[in-house]
């Protein structure tokens, strides 16, 4: 049923009329989050599945649009949660119609489409945010408060094999990690190496990529869709410490290197409790991260500020992902 909203502190003059395109599992989560965010007015949704749409209308008490023109006429912003192949078509139309856009990653199906969206965004007076919800994982948000200055980063994103899920290892598993890495390392990419291994079919089931940056930082990214157990972690190494981030358990921990008392063991590793307190102990799960990013999208519109993950950020991450795929394919590294 529709959410019971508290309008006591809502500024109705700042209400943003928003519509959702695509009401699959993630789309329904977005609908629920939007209904819980003050100053968002959910106008309705569009979805091609009649049975699912009927169920959503009843469950959330919202209107289903069948006509795209009518849908666009009623909204200030759209939330795009459809297959990537249609991202460009919908986003470009929205931008040209002066609609704000939240678009789930990846930004576009091809790099050319993503590049054109960047150009359209600069020409249009609208706000565009790319959905990379792991940027708002409590473990990461807590860790970045400690002024991370990485020299080396190791990332693992492993999923258990599911024959019913068509998972693209680079675009589905590795892309969010690429986005996070680029947000932490403010330096140009110098060199990329990549290796892929497939067990069945043409696309890799496991990928390892090594990215070197101009400032000397090196990143190792590992992604797999055929792992024995699920894992999503990042270790950030610096000269005198390293920080571990467990995305699944939403837990961060800091380890400091300290001088030992004897020559046999000149270096000890001491853990601190600094990252065990505060934000990372609040396990919000996927729902909480989605609500966080949508809330920031609404704030960027109302305050006329840059979005948390803008269209250029979305393009930059996608560009690296495509380069990784090209390295694998051009060198015939799929074994």
Brief characterization of the structure:
It is built from 9 helices and 13 strands. It has 335 residues and is α/β, with parallel strands linked by helices. It folds into 2 domains: 144 residues, Rossmann fold (3-Layer(aba) Sandwich), CATH 3.40.50; 159 residues, Dihydrodipicolinate Reductase, domain 2, CATH 3.30.360.10.
Largest sheet: 8 strands, mixed
User: How many distinct domains?
Assistant: 2
Q: Enumerate how many helices there are, as a single number.
A: 9
User: Which structural class best describes the helix and strand composition?
Assistant: alpha/beta
CATH class of the largest domain: Alpha Beta
Strand order of the largest sheet: 7-8-9-6-10-11-12-13
CATH fold name of the largest domain: Dihydrodipicolinate Reductase, domain 2
Strand content bin = 25-35%
Please tell me what the overall shape is: globular
